[in-house]
Amino acid sequence: MSAQVRGQTPISPPPSGPVPFPRELSLRLLADMVRIRRMEEKCAELYGAGKIRGFLHLYIGEEAVAAGALPALAPEDDIVATYREHGHALLRGVSMKAIMAEMFGKREGCSRGRGGSMHLFDAATRFYGGNAIVGGGLPLAVGLALASSLRKEKRVTACFFGEGAVAEGAFHESMNLAQLWRLPVAFFCENNLYAMGTALARSESQTDLCVKAAAFGMATLKVDGMDVVATHEAAKQACAHVRAGKGPVFVEFQTYRFRAHSMFDAELYREKSEVEQWKTRGPIHTFSARLKAQGELTEPQFLEIDAAAMREVDEAVAFAEAGTWEPVEDLAKDVYAP
Ligand SMILES: Cc1ncc(C[n+]2csc(CCOP(=O)(O)OP(=O)(O)O)c2C)c(N)n1
Ligand SMILES: [Mg+2]
Questions:
Q1: Which of 161, 196, 200, 255 to mutate to test the pocket of ligand 1 (most atoms within 8 A of CB)?
Q2: CA distance 7 to 274
Q3: Cα 93 off chain centre by
């Protein structure tokens, strides 16, 4: 396999420079990334222990995208995501307890234990899933945006999806109608360079995703997805564009997953050295180093943020463990009419 077919090279230097946010916001973004990381590390461990079963796709390495994008959204906005959505749900305000219980398949989970890792759903926070179908979220997002547009409700629909979705017909149909009807959608593409084991250049003749979006006449932004400063600024800009009634926007977050695609993946499609190089751009350690350099974070403060995240994880696991199984006689409920 040639170098071009693997992840794009060369890899840029780690994100650096001053953080222009108020300290409170910076610490929140940092804490949010740490919460996702610690929650998912625990999920991996619980998967190994047989407590979490089925599919499990970890977001580790990509945290700066959700951490930067979610705070740009308002409570009335709608969100659609993929199966790699644990972090998005958490930062939207679904409790870690309800997420963990869902991972376990317990009745107390946010989808009552029927969705599992790939189908976290919470109507109260307008978090409309969690979708196992590649590209499946895009038509849903366009439908939600069409509904809010017809009802004259002021909402942004944020649609998160991987770069693998651009190979699907649903992507092109959704982009076309969203732009044609000037719908209020922010398409947030998480380009982590691989769709399972397929590098972007192996499946796409045009690897610049913004060029694809621009072909529909859509406004585009390309962002360093490992830099939470850049992701937050870009998401704010994208949402402002949509809120101003200028129609949809496409944002390409250039990111990288540090773990396997799912728990069943021997990772034969990329070199370990590529992963190690990307880890030097890790969103948590680079951002905390910048905050330390400008005197806004000390190592003990970082350790306290980390400890708080681990306490939240422990409480979520205890909640999931104590949760209940749906009785077998209820299994056909909501599936077949009585
Ligand atoms: C329509 C469809 N085709 C194939 C699959 C199998 N599949 C699951 S994940 C995946 C890769 C998707 O990659 P990407 O969109 O880049 O998201 P990432 O996993 O990198 O976050 C594929 C092909 C699927 N779930 N749905
Ligand atoms: Mg991908």
A1: 196
A2: 8
A3: 14
> Can you tell me which residue has the tokens 């995208």?
65
Q: Calculate ∠ Cα 235-62-120, nearest 5°.
A: 85
pLDDT digits (tens, 9 = 90+) for 209-236: 999 999 999 999 999 999 999 999 999 9
Testing ligand 1's pocket by substitution, the residue of 55, 63, 117, 134 carrying the most ligand atoms inside 8 A of its CB is: 134
Question: Residue 316: CB partners within 8 Å, gap ≥ 6?
Answer: 39, 95, 96, 97, 99, 100, 101
- Nearest atom, ligand 1, residue 135 CA: 1
Closest ligand to residue 166's CA: 1
Supply the DSSP string of 274-317, one letter for each residue: HHHHHHTT-HHHHHHHHHHHTTS--HHHHHHHHHHHHHHHHHHH
**Which residue type does 334 have?**
D
Q: Which ligand is nearest to the CA of 65?
A: 1
Q: pLDDT tens for residues 283-316?
A: 999 999 999 999 999 999 999 999 999 999 999 9
- One-letter amino acid of 69: A
DSSP string computed for 55-88: -----TT-HHHHHHHGGGS-TT-EEE--SS-HHH
Measured in Å, residue 72 CA sits from the centre of ligand 1 at: 26
Amino acid 166 reads: V
Residues in contact with ligand 1 by the CB-under-6-Å rule are 82, 84, 132-134, 162-165, 190, 192, 194-196, 261
